Amino acid sequence: MKISKYIIAFVVIVAVAYNAVYFKKLDEVKASKAAKDFNAAQYAATFWNTKLLPNLNKAIDVTRLSFMLSRDPQTAFENYSHALGIGNLRYFLVSGKGTVESINENDVSVLIQTDSIKQKITIATEYIFGNAVRDATGLIDINEFNNTMDFNNVSAEINKTIREKVLPAFRQQVKKGNPIVFTGAIELNKEHLDLSRIEVLPVEIKIL
Predict the structure, then answer these.
(1) pLDDT: is 15 or 124 the higher one?
(2) What is the CATH code for 39-207?
């Protein structure tokens, strides 16, 4: 009788102990910790300073890109655009020099004129959002991220840098007729290409 009691007690203890212990796969634990530790602001700052700014000299002149897109869009997209997913939206890193035609509530209109090309573009100054700047260089590997939230938060932090560090001084000083130089990112739809509506999200912009 005593032995039976001991056996029952032992079984109960084992059952309680088993249910009290929760096992996780090691890779799940690591992924959870990485997600918790990820700092989007820090990642974005590092990307900005060590990858984006040092590669601005690789930007294609926006008038040259427009000319190529009007003649051979497939080659232009293949050689100069980047995207981290499958779809029609593609991103380009561009540069240019032009004259401010008008200062609007949400953007600045710029006329770019050469001996052979006359083109109008806009520089976004208010609504800075999307993934254009993050993806235009092709220097971010999506496999570095454990989830899409972290990935999208990097875009948000990059765009925040533009709003807070790149644009304020420009917006305060710019006037109609100012010559400016800029480097930034644009988003174009491969299947519905509209070269009359090119909007640049500036990474660098200066009044000459």
Answers:
(1) 124
(2) 2.40.50.420
